[in-house]
Amino acid sequence: MARPATSPYPAPPEGAPLRLAFVGQQTYFRACALDEDSARIRTAFIDYRDGRDPELLRARLTAFAPHAVVVFRPETVPAGLLADFAVPVLGFLTEPISRESGGGALHWDLEERRRAMARLDRANVDRLVSFDPLIVPTVDEVMDVWRSLPIPVADRLYRPVQRVNGTPRMLFVGRSTVHRERYLIDVKHRFDCLHVAFGIQVEELEELLDAHQITFNIHNEPYPSFENRVLLHLAAGHLVISEPLSPTHGLEPGFDFVEVSHPEDLLAVATEARAFPDAFHRIRVRGRQKAELVRASRVWPALMRDLFADLHAFGTHREVATQLIGAAAHA
Amino acid sequence: MRHELPYAPPPPGVPVRVAFVGQRTYFEACSLSAPAGGLHPMFIDFRGGAQTAPMLDALHRFDPHAVVVFRPEILPPGTMDAIAAPVLGFLTEPLPRTVAGQPDDTDAPHPNLAYNLAELAKIDRGNVDRVITFDPHGWDAAAALVPLWRAMPLPVDDRLYRAPRPSRRPPRIIFIGYSTMHREQSLVGLKHELDLPHYAHALMGDELRDVLWSADAGLNLHGEEWVRSFENRVLLHLASGALVITEVLEPLFGLEPGIDVLQVSDRHELSLRVHQLTQMPDMHDRIRIRGHHKSRQFAASKLWPRVIGDLFADLAAFGTERQNLRPAAPLAALSPPA
Q: What distance separates the 2 farthest-apart alpha carbons in chain A?
């Protein structure tokens, strides 16, 4: 990447807050975004999803006049929509895709998501962040990945770990798949595990997090991944019982969460945790501590600082930035 | 049939203690949660495969005059032998249907219905005095296996009732029910276009009430595309003042499509109706009001006192088949020492 003579995008005026817009499907990503209105940063969340009116997104962005934009699932933004939007745009890849670039037996679900990711228009984004470092070789075929880190967790979802009074309650938030039902069916019917399959907003999620203490993480399909619900529930002080995570993003099975590899294991651990919640208290405390690493108010400002620094140092491929630099030089 | 009752009816003027037994997840919302019509209710959680002793112990402590068991086929044989009170079973699962006394025009029943029938065949008739089915179309299939008495929809707990309110803009439209391929195919587009919430399991108690009351419309989709039924969520949503958009109901239990509920023939019409409602949230307010009004006849406080009263009268008139009732004394032995 060519090193520019100057920063391609204007930084916020000295002393003014950074205006940061988050764009994505609110059902999923408001729980991952920063919600702040302070002297350092001012945020807005703009709901957008595949198939929605792109001009409306553009109009809302223009109205907010951000200094930087974060787009969750940037592959859903139509080609060229943000090509002339003259602020840094950070795309955040949130979907698991095939980890091999070709050959071998690839899971149909991962391949479908890989094809969807391939729609990404490089002109819309300056940098890409991937939630999964193991998909980077695949993504690099479309656009270089800048960084990999787990999806942050909104500050509003953090809670102190509380001792369980009475019988702990169980919760699973995530869509229903055959693989998940195979794991969860017994705990659902034995222990009335609440399963919320779709569509709750962050306000309702907060209430659910307050009322439950044990949760599960089951992959969509039988392929390894790292779902953001793991950190979200750890942040809430829950005991997380999960299939093996890949990558682990620093979480340690047996210390920060309980790992299970079979539906019967899940039932056994859930039964034990329900009967003896105190036995798992340390794991909840450890997991909660580890979740601090992804607190939105820590991660997003640091990421924005690095984004501006990186763009200043290495420039960008986006045409609009080149035009900005040219206009500045001409002036 | 045995005509002399092995249990005495409650003395006049005394509140009739009725125990409702079943999986709380599903059936608490169909029972009576507060005294009404001379009944004093209690709900006791019991589900297939669970130990019977805690349930029997709770029954013993409550000493009911009558017991209602949802899905009585999950009771192990002989479970109710020590309960010296009338036991009313309530069948809640759809069964293979007959048309005018003849088997349905299909060669074999749908596998789900056949499975339900096979499960029902495990029932111990000695556990129940009378049985109600929610589905009159499955009457013949059930009558061969249980002392079938009546068909009626599952009642709705009074605490879930709330008069219709002006709709939010956009309206909050929800689906409550476990996930099946047919349901997901019908809902997936709506979910992603409208953030339609889907509660797949174990929504109950105050959380159920809060979710029902937060909704302006509730969807009803059958578990399978070609297996029509009357799911109790229809009445739950109507009771809470929500508009019900449903696939074709069979039976209707007096609900009139286009007047009490909005009926759709397939997922495409469902999508159309939901999108219309999103654009004009109050366009079906009359249906919401009418549907809620109709749902009031299914309030638990209205239905259960009459059903229990009729149960005693019917037993007094026609007796019971239950043969294995043991006197009350052995039941006391089940309770742990003080």
A: 72
b/e sequence A152-174, b meaning 16+ C-beta within 10 Å: bbbebbbeebeebeeebbbbbbb
Collect all residues of chain B within an 8 Å Cβ-Cβ radius of residue A210: none
Q: At what angle do helices B181-194 and B267-279 cross, to 10 degrees?
A: 30
What is the reported pTM?
A: 0.91
Residue count of chain A: 331
- The Cα B199–Cα A196 span in angstroms is 4
Q: What Rg, from alpha-carbon coordinates, does chain A have?
A: 21
- Torsion (CA) A301, A306, A312, A315 in degrees, nearest 10: -110
Work out how many CB contacts closer than 8 A connect A with B. Answer: 61
Cα-based angle B154, B158, B159 (whole degrees, multiple of 5): 120
What's at A162, amino acid-wise?
Answer: Q
C-alpha span between B245 and B93 (Å, rounded): 21
Q: Does B202 touch chain A (CB under 8 A)?
A: yes
Per-residue tokens: A183: 């794991």
Separation between Cα atoms, residue B315 and residue B320, nearest integer Å: 6
Q: How confident is the model at residue B44 (pLDDT cuts 50, 70, 90)?
A: very high
Provide CB contacts within 8 A for A280, sequence distance 6+: A239, A258, A273
- Segment B237-263 mean pLDDT: 98
Query: CB–CB of A159/A153 below 8 Å?
Result: no
Hey, which residues 47-106 in chain B have their CB within 8 Å of chain A?
47-49
**In this complex, is the C-beta atom of B179 within 8 Å of any C-beta atom belonging to chain A?**
yes
Residue B330: per-residue pLDDT: 36
Q: Which DSSP letter does residue A53 get? A: -
CA within 13 Å, CB half, B174 = 28
DSSP designation for B216: S
pLDDT of residue A83: 95
Contact assessment for residue A230 and residue A255, using Cβ atoms and an 8 Å cutoff: no
Residue B333 binned pLDDT confidence (cut-offs 50, 70, 90): very low
Picking from A190, A193, A198, the nearest residue to B196 by CB comes out as: A198
Q: What residues pair up with B66 in beta bridges, in sequence order?
A: B18
pLDDT classification of A283: cutoffs 50, 70, 90: very high
What is d(CA A115, CA A107) in angstroms, rounded to the nearest whole number?
12
Distance CA B79, CA A11 (A): 75
Look up residue A55 and give its two tokens.
Answer: 């001009």
Alpha carbon distance A18, A13 (integer Å):
9
First to last CA, chain B: 39
Q: What is the pLDDT of residues B67-105, one digit of tens each?
A: 999 999 999 999 999 999 999 999 999 999 976 545 555
Rounded distance, CA A134 to CA A139, Å? 10
Give mean pLDDT, residues B150-156. 98
Quick check: A198 and A177 in contact, CB under 8 A? no
Packing angle of the helix pair A263-275, A178-191 (nearest 10 deg): 30
User: How many angstroms separate the CA atoms of B103 and A278, rounded?
Assistant: 56
B202: nearest CB among A50, A51, A195: A195
By Cβ distance, the residue of A26, A181, A197 closest to B195 is A26
List all residues 6 or more positions away from A201 whose beta carbon is below 8 Å from its beta carbon: A26, A27, A30, B195
